[in-house]
Amino acid sequence: MSSEVRFTDFKSDKQPTWCPGCGDFGTMNGMMKALAETGNDPDNTFVVAGIGCSGKIGTYMHSYALHGVHGRALPVGTGVKLANPNLEVMVAGGDGDGYSIGAGHFVHAVRRNVDMTYVVMDNRIYGLTKGQASPTSREDFQTSTTPEGPKQPPVNPMALALAAGATFIAQSFSSDALRHQEIIQKAIEHDGFGFVNTFSPCVTFNDVDTYDYFRDSLVDLQDTDHDSSDFDAAKDKILDSSKEYMGVIYQEEDSVSYEQQHGVTENMSEIPDGAPDDAMDLVREFY
Amino acid sequence: MPADFNWAIGGEAGDGIDSTGKIFAQALSRAGRHVFTSKDFASRIRGGYTAYKVRTSVDQVQSVVDRLDVLIALTPRTIDENLDELHEGSVIVYDGERTSMQNVEIPEGMIGLDVPLKSLAEEAGGAIMRNVVALGAACEVTNFPIENLDSALEKRFGSKGQKLVDNNKEAARAGQNYVADEYDHEFDYDLDTTDNDYVLLNGDEAIGMGAIAAGCRFYAGYPITPATNVMEYLTGRIEQYGGHVIQAEDELSAINIALGAARAGARSMTATSGPGIDLMAETFGLIATSETPLVICDVMRSGPSTGMPTKQEQGDLNMALFGGHGEIPRFVVAPTSVSECFWKTVEAFNLAEKYQTPVYILSDLAMAVTEQTFPPEAFDMDAVEIERGNVVDDDTIDEWQNEKGQFKPHALAEDGISPRAFPGTSGGAHMSTGLEHDELGRRTEDTDMRVQQVDKRNKKVETAQEREDWSPREFGNPDSDQLVITWGSNEGTIVEAMGFLEEEGVDIRLLSVPYLFPRPDLSEEINDADDVVVVECNESGQFADVLEHDALRRVKRVNKYNGVQFKADELAEDIKETLEA
Ligand SMILES: Cc1ncc(C[n+]2csc(CCOP(=O)(O)OP(=O)(O)O)c2C)c(N)n1
Ligand code: SF4
Ligand SMILES: [Mg+2]
């Protein structure tokens, strides 16, 4: 059946209310194409969405989905995947959702290495609350709550991930449709936590980190001799603040997912209609 | 000698008090005696006073009392802490060779047994066994056949090799013989044995076992006293049934991981205590609006804030009933004994799935750490029924799809109960959200749909009120016009207090309420009684408040909030005084 799945099957009949030109459109399209291309269908896919403009993606896609509490999308995805490892789990949310209120979960989700994909729709701004600084906003980026800029360096999400023991780190750009889709596909196929920071410009509130800016500044690693299996090379790229990179920056080839480590294999929704047959043994343990 | 016997071992945290006490409790249980244990402990790992108390009888015991017959005191402070409970004829076992115990004074009328615990232990193979020497001494004092202690030692140390077991048995005998040889005193105690088989477990273990029995396959948690035991119990056991336990980075995560597992169709739970329930409250509303079946266990301890982490309190009732912003339909059950911890957990999972709501299990520290004996039939696994509610599959899903073939997870069913389709079900793909939504689960701000969805979620509570049995547990004289009402772990204590009250000619009716929301309507009972006393371990009387609200009548209150659970004899006095006031 999966070969018949088209990417539009992942589209719900709800019309997106994102501003025309919002980067989230391209980010979502690439995700849907990557899901279809990797043989998934809406009935075996679970999307967990954060809270923010980006989080609306759960409504615009067609799949099993949960749109939960601000910052907690990764924990929800973790629970879904562990309770039924047969599902394809994709978590998506904003830079505020993931790197501010959810930063603690991000670090631990990375080191846990549950086999799911995490797409951060990074617009370097709080879109939904109408334009406040986010953790990835530039130091001098003026907003309603930071009139002179945050005056603190932006977080480097990839460095955070690398330090936490990430097995897959990539960056993509919503408007480079083909590359974005390819990169998400690789994250899906990765056996472990596939982290993709996707630049998804906010055309309404961010006039600095624009399409033009990313188009001009992004260096595609594909066009370089970068070896994504080389940790040190990845570290250098990630810590190089003079450039923005696109592509798979780091991938641990022999990544072992949390589920494999812990022998989590069952679809836990299937249980008998009474206590397990040998349950009296549990009682006898207390003799 | 009274029918019950009270024993304790006390010392510093880190002295192995807990494991020694548990061994003795196990020995008594294996000898066919009933046991009820309690702990007095400080939250530091080392330093500070800690004690493990055992009340035992051939009949059922379900409370602590203010009396101590034999005390093993490893520190002088242990004697001081228990002065009020010791009485004439009480035996105090201590090691006079221990520097701190050299000048210890045995209070008037009590019998001090100076036993060189450490030296005897060293002779038997290691100083670490000195507490076991003391247990041997206790066997001699109480005429308790030492073979029962052997059996408990085998259980405790068997996995570590026969040599260790033998050394411990020898250490126990050294203590026993020392007392027999050095003291020709006649002690008043005789611990008879019976042929009965009992199991010995605490409330946290009962909750964990109930979860597995009920088909729970997923647990996410973050360690916190006194709930950690639930997680530790499940770890290593739930996997045998295809399940998994995960330690989250915090409680914000734990409850959301558990929620994710529930969305995937697993019976899923988390357990925590006060500080953790505060963090989890962030997600209470999402569970309810997304109609996710989730069991959340709060093993209450003394608050607020970090409070007294190892002390008893029933202070989170308001949190369980009202916690979280907005209005959140939810169920709250509160087990009333260790065995009920098992059964209420089973029930909680059924309620959660049948009504697709968060179900809170309110347990408390007193029950969580109390080891109590039961006949194994008290946990009859054949009686466990699993009801999963309205779950659709590939064949039945079309009944709940709209004309476009879209699944309606929040369908406006007449009884409020919409269908669930587990991920993987064909044609079931759907969204669910903490935003107000329509039948398809999509965000809406349509005023009519908002009202319909709120009413639908509340309708589930009404449906449950009609379909389920929410009766309280009743004890004492049903015709008495003196009504005592309680919840949680106080039930057994009050039942025992009724014995003391009877001796004083006071006759009461006790209603012990395990369902706090929905809860039984007790307005008739409350209004028909001459006096109503609500007993709970908190300062303000949180349950008394809701009962007054339900019945529109003032009630009297007995509250305790010093961190220690009620004791039967003390409580009998309190109830009597309050009734008379
Ligand atoms: C607990 C909580 N605090 C604050 C908010 C308000 N809020 C909603 S979205 C958001 C930030 C959105 O930024 P981001 O995650 O970058 O998403 P974007 O809108 O840019 O896609 C905030 C602060 C909330 N919903 N919940
Ligand atoms: S405000 Fe920005 S992020 Fe939000 S929809 Fe509009 S363009 Fe996109
Ligand atoms: Mg953003």
Automatic annotation (TrEMBL), chain A:
Keywords: Iron, Iron-sulfur, Magnesium, Metal-binding, Oxidoreductase, Thiamine pyrophosphate
Single Gene Ontology BP annotation: cellular respiration
Cofactor(s) essential for the protein: thiamine diphosphate; Mg(2+); [4Fe-4S] cluster
Biased composition (Polar residues): 131-147
The UniProt record lists the keyword Iron: yes
Residues spanning the membrane: none
InterPro entries: 2-oxoacid:Fd_oxidoreductase, OFOB, PFO_beta_C, THDP-binding, TPP_enzyme_TPP-bd
Pfam families: PFO_beta_C, TPP_enzyme_C
Annotated ranges, domain Thiamine pyrophosphate enzyme TPP-binding: 51-197
GO MF terms, alphabetically ordered: iron-sulfur cluster binding; metal ion binding; oxidoreductase activity, acting on the aldehyde or oxo group of donors, iron-sulfur protein as acceptor; thiamine pyrophosphate binding
Region (Disordered): 130-154
Domain Pyruvate ferredoxin oxidoreductase beta subunit C-terminal: 202-265
PANTHER family: 2-OXOGLUTARATE OXIDOREDUCTASE SUBUNIT KORB, 2-OXOGLUTARATE OXIDOREDUCTASE SUBUNIT KORB-RELATED
NCBIfam families reported for this sequence: PorB_KorB
The protein's name: 2-oxoglutarate ferredoxin oxidoreductase subunit beta
TrEMBL record, chain B:
Region annotation Disordered: where it falls in the sequence: 454-477
Domain of life: Archaea
Boundaries of every Pyruvate flavodoxin/ferredoxin oxidoreductase pyrimidine binding domain copy: 210-455
Reactions the enzyme catalyzes: 2 oxidized [2Fe-2S]-[ferredoxin] + 2-oxoglutarate + CoA = succinyl-CoA + 2 reduced [2Fe-2S]-[ferredoxin] + CO2 + H(+)
Protein's UniProt keywords contain Oxidoreductase: yes
Record domain Pyruvate/ketoisovalerate oxidoreductase catalytic: where: 13-175
CDD domains in the record: TPP_PYR_PFOR_IOR-alpha_like
One GO MF term: 2-oxoglutarate synthase activity
Pfam (any one): POR
Record carries keyword Oxidoreductase: yes
Coiled coil: none
Keywords: Oxidoreductase
E.C. designation(s): 1.2.7.3
InterPro entries: 2-oxoacid/accept_OxRdtase_asu (IPR022367), Pyruvate:ferred/Flavod_OxRd (IPR050722), Pyrv/ketoisovalerate_OxRed_cat (IPR019752), Pyrv_Fd/Flavodoxin_OxRdtase_N (IPR002880), Pyrv_flavodox_OxRed_cen (IPR002869), THDP-binding (IPR029061), Transketo_C/PFOR_II (IPR009014)
GO process terms (BP): organic acid metabolic process; response to oxidative stress; sulfur compound biosynthetic process
UniProt biased composition (Basic and acidic residues): 454-472
Listed PANTHER family: 2-OXOGLUTARATE OXIDOREDUCTASE SUBUNIT KORA, PYRUVATE-FLAVODOXIN OXIDOREDUCTASE-RELATED
Assembly description: Heterotetramer of the KorA, KorB, KorC and KorD subunits.
Name of the protein in question: 2-oxoglutarate synthase subunit KorA
Organism encoding this protein: Halogranum rubrum
